[in-house]
Amino acid sequence: MQGALDALYLVDNNQYAFQFDDEVYHYFTEYVLNQDCDRLQWGAGRIVHHVDLSKEVKSLQKKIAEGRNDVSEELAALRKMEEEQLVCFDDDIRYMTQAVDTLTAGLKKVKEVLDFFSYGQPDFVPGTERRSAQAPEDAGRMFCQGPAL
Fold first, then answer.
1. Of 16, 46, 45, which is closest to residue 28 (Cα–Cα)?
2. CA 26 to CA 36: how far, in whole Å?
3. Are 122 and 132 in contact (CB under 8 A)?
4. Is the pLDDT of residue 79 over 90?
């Protein structure tokens, strides 16, 4: 049973559930989970899932101290949490895949624009007169700053 308890220490910040009382543990967990968007390390949305095993940890600690071996209640709770986390994992992967697809599409559009300017095509920019193509070394300046008038 001690091996199982040691493994639970490695999940999220649950190692602190063993070292502090519940109020301190939950205070700092909420502090991390509920940050403003401007925080660089623990900003909003950076840590989106947390598995609170403090109840199971304390129960297992008590059973070890008392020499009891029936852990069926804790095992059932852990299996339920595992299922919930697998759903979260699937959602995270789906979100990351969509984000990468969106980024890839945007980069392809940028490449098309740069290719258009680099291969000597007319560099029409809405609101300006149509001019002859710029040399490839000017394409970046044109794209970022607009054409020189």
1. 16
2. 18
3. yes
4. yes
